[in-house]
Write a structure and sequence with these properties.
single chain; about 260 residues; mainly alpha
């Protein structure tokens, strides 16, 4: 199909990818929008995950750069967490055959309701940065453990990784939600790129479509990051609550369906 003729066909997909990028930059969970959107556009299911990883990686790179510029973490700190995230993701991918996905979904079904309830009740969650109560060494250990554990889950199953990272960094390290989201974006980018390399090697990426939708995702992520930085935790907390509830619905449908 000629590109000029194909453009109107893919316009709704581009708008949904933009929306997913906007939401993902604030609270994660963009895949809840993009995966069904790609399928509805007629994309071959064999190319679904790889094409989505390409466009989402492009968008996440923009959001990560935008957040990290404001969060001001040390580069060596980010590098260590990124290395741990990469290792955790690889181990998770390798453990797929050992841990049944259904078991992970059942665990999420148990964990997500308390998380959503906590976010609903704690209206001050993540508004203030209390990380200074920990030493630099303690923060590195805590952040490293979170990076490894959640990235392991990302390699194993995946949905909601950015959301879980942001919440864990806030709850266990004391970072405010803006700094936690910055870390989550950087680490999610690492795992996305690692997965993308695998899909590219296997030939499971529609490069033309992925690159085109990646531009829409970049615009959405930039807009979402700008909006989050402007509004702060006041917008991120309710967005996390909505994404957690959406994940709960998705997991329940996966199990019962």
């Amino acid at each position: 199909m000629h590109p000029l003729h194909a453009a109107p066909h893919y316009l709704p997909l581009a708008l949904l990818v933009f929306l997913a990028g906007f939401v993902d930059a604030i609270a994660g969970g963009g895949g809840l929008i993009t995966l069904p959107a790609y399928l509805a556009s007629g994309l071959n299911p064999a190319l679904l995950l790889g094409t989505n990883k390409l466009s989402s990686s492009m968008g996440t790179a923009v959001a990560a750069a935008r957040f990290l510029k404001e969060a001001r973490f040390r580069k060596d700190f980010i590098f260590i967490l990124a290395a741990l995230a990469a290792g955790g993701g690889l181990l998770g991918a390798g453990a797929i055959s050992l841990v049944p996905p259904r078991f992970i979904r059942l665990a999420l079904l148990i964990l997500l309701p308390p998380i959503a309830l906590f976010l609903a009740l704690r209206k001050d969650f993540g508004r203030l940065d209390s990380s200074k109560r920990f030493s630099e060494k303690a923060l590195l250990w805590r952040s490293g453990a979170i990076s490894s554990a959640v990235s392991f889950y990302d390699g194993l199953l995946g949905p909601g990784t950015g959301t879980f990272l942001a919440m864990a960094f806030t709850r266990l390290c004391g970072y405010d939600l803006l700094r936690s989201t910055a870390l989550a974006k950087a680490l999610n980018l690492v795992s996305n790129i690692a997965a993308l390399c695998t899909f590219l090697y296997l030939g499971r990426v529609n490069l033309r479509l992925g690159l085109a939708m990646g531009v829409a995702g970049m615009a959405g992520n930039y807009s979402g990051a700008h909006f989050a930085l402007k509004k702060g935790a006041g917008i991120i907390r309710p967005a996390l609550l909505i994404i957690s509830a959406a994940l709960l619905v998705k997991v329940f449908r996966d199990i019962t369906g």
